[in-house]
Amino acid sequence: MARKTGSHSEITGPKIRAEAQRLFARHGFAAVSMRQIAAAVGVQAGALYLYTPDKEALLFDLLKSHMDDLIAAWRAEAPEGADALARLERFVRFHIRFNLERAEVVFLSYMELRNLSEENFAKIEGLRKTYETELEEILKAGQAEGVFLIPDTKLATMAIIAMLTGVNTWFREGGRLSRAMVADIYWDMVRKAVGA
Amino acid sequence: MARKTGSHSEITGPKIRAEAQRLFARHGFAAVSMRQIAAAVGVQAGALYLYTPDKEALLFDLLKSHMDDLIAAWRAEAPEGADALARLERFVRFHIRFNLERAEVVFLSYMELRNLSEENFAKIEGLRKTYETELEEILKAGQAEGVFLIPDTKLATMAIIAMLTGVNTWFREGGRLSRAMVADIYWDMVRKAVGA
DNA sequence: TTTGATAATGAACGAGCGTTCAGTTAGCGT
DNA sequence: ACGCTAACTGAACGCTCGTTCATTATCAAA
């Protein structure tokens, strides 16, 4: 056997990315072999190298795409002219919703950064910083408007993001609370934390 | 060569645990080989098996000891008769301090849980739950006293712990803020978040 | 229908993995 | 000084790893 009937790169390519994401998230990057990914896709290991130069590039592509999506999605949704309080509320709800929708890759982008080369690590960190800055700008604006009372906007940024991302570690669909209720409760805590 | 001059299990044993902790934290459990650990200790790989039945047990021992230490340290430090606000402040400062002092194993206990067997995973999760309950009891007490205004004590517990543990991801010794200043700022945010 | 490009196979490469164990040396109580 | 035990070596076991490549089957355009 060689080429399979009905095989197309537009199908196999995304399939590889999807299976890699699923397996990396479930077992960890280092614990997943190229052969496992290939088996999940339904090809031999060698075929993966038509789609990625190496294993690390596969991980990097997943993380890079995710960060690009995250930033683009937020910028598309961020209320431009609104006051800081409204923008902060939007950010909180956006972050929880977006991250819960992509739990696998979010998990990956927190756990598997150290498996990237120094160069690729720096790229992802840069994008993360870009995203964090979006929140910090809101906090600074609120501080300037006099509606927030924040001792340190940098720390508040890190604290809020850690708090919101933490939802992914415990939230289970069909549990005691719906996503909307969780978002409401977290927004209440964040609003109070910034003194608004 | 066989036994080395000056070799003693009371020295080699802890050394293995220390090097394993360092390497696991730096490169990830799956990415570190028994030979690497042995080389860092200064023995051959086979010697490690005088101290651990297998690689996973090495990881489990590190995590188990850490969780035991964490819970014991908090119980030793928790103010028994105090009011909820004072107990919460103590918890916040304790958690930040204790976790910053043991950054490596804290990192491990968040990243490498999935490398444990189901059985060992459950044990660590149980200890984590025990620790979280200590915080939730404080929040419930404060709610009962009427000094806290918390929409959901379970969520508040998760939110606060995620927020506090997040300090480990960005804090660097000799940076803009000292540990004490960080603790002050986080306590301010937590206090506000619970409505006190 | 022919033909070149595309998509895949499957075997092979050298290296490293966790783990076991017979053998060897150092420490130490007698 | 002897002998027992604790500490460690070094080689070996069977696997799996990421990656390469000559080969082959299918697809799509001419």
Low confidence ranges of chain A: none
- The protein's oligomeric status is homodimer
- Alpha-beta content class of chain A: mainly alpha
- Largest β-sheet summary of chain A: none
Order of helices and strands of chain A: HHHHHHHHH
Which terms summarize this structure?
homodimer, 196 residues, mainly alpha, Arc Repressor Mutant, subunit A, Tetracycline Repressor, domain 2, elongated
3D structure, described in words:
- Chains A, B: Keywords: DNA-binding.
- Chains A, B: One of its GO terms (molecular function) is transcription cis-regulatory region binding.
- Chains A, B: It comes from Thioclava pacifica DSM 10166.
- The structure is a homodimer of 196-residue chains.
- By secondary structure, chain A is mainly α.
- Chain A folds into two domains: 1-52, Orthogonal Bundle (Arc Repressor Mutant, subunit A); 55-193, Orthogonal Bundle (Tetracycline Repressor, domain 2), CATH 1.10.357.
- Chain A contains nine helices and no strands.
- The first copy, chain A, has helices at 9-27, 34-41, 55-77, 84-101, 103-111, 118-145, 153-165, 167-170, 179-193.
- In chain A, helix 4 packs across helix 9 (179-193) and helix 6 packs across helix 7.
- The longest helix of chain A is centred in the last third of the chain and has 28 residues, at 118-145.
- The first copy, chain A, binds a DNA duplex (30 and 30 nucleotides) through loops.
